[in-house]
Amino acid sequence: MALSKQVQIAVVLFSLVAAASALDLPIDWKIPTSGKPYDTTYLQTGDSVTFNWRGFHGVYKITSDRCPATFSDSGPDDLAPSASGGSYTWHATAPGTYYLACQVGDHCKEGMLIEIVVGSGPALAPSAMAPMVPAEAPAASGDSEGSEGEN
């Protein structure tokens, strides 16, 4: 059974739109004031996340949602070596669950840890996601807004 020309064109157009709508989610990579890890992020293959930071941080791939006792200074898991200010883009190339953390001092234990779940479906439209920032602890009364330093 042959597909009609209109169906063939629709399939090609859908494929092009899906490929063109790959998501690049920006993440404000800093120590959450709540001390809790970032919320789980859901992506599709072809999507990416870009970690942007001020202060001294990095990006390291770990094997679970538990921070390791130590981080190796080099190797394939050291995705973005520690630096004062920077940016790193991680690409979702295969379905699975991934854990990325900051390897500086106790930053991982202080909440600089994110779980990324990658599915195999079409990418989400970029407008479906907002920039990700860590969960913030409720401000105590009398705290002034905007006085947070660089983490």
From TrEMBL:
InterPro entries: Cu_oxidase_CS, Cupredoxin. Keywords: Metal-binding, Signal. It comes from the Eukaryota. It comes from Symbiochloris irregularis. The keyword Metal-binding applies. This is Phytocyanin domain-containing protein. Residues 1-22 form the signal peptide. GO terms for molecular function: metal ion binding.
